[in-house]
Amino acid sequence: MKTFTCVAGHGYLYIPSSCTRLGNEAGVDSCPECAILEPLSSWPNLGSAPVSRSGPCGYNARDSIDYNQPTSNWGTGPVASYTAGHETEVHWCVDHNGDHGGMFSYHICQD
Question: Which residues, 6+ apart, have CB-to-CB distance to 84 below 8 Å?
């Protein structure tokens, strides 16, 4: 069993490609790990932060990108397909310099 250390940071799904990774690779998202509404008004009391305020796919307030709205850069089709019951390997890009204590929240978009 692996153990993990609690850290303050940002991150995003790298494999399969998340919308934020695709937005970054398209040159429109300067911070793919920032798909939250900033500034985080509840800092340092992270337990009181409102949740689900960015929609299921996220919103990057820094670059005004609403990942809930598909564009030619993301959201036009599946980036990966899986079979029920099979193990799936995913990769996360985690950055150590987060300024808001993490608050990781990952969702599977319905579209």
Answer: none
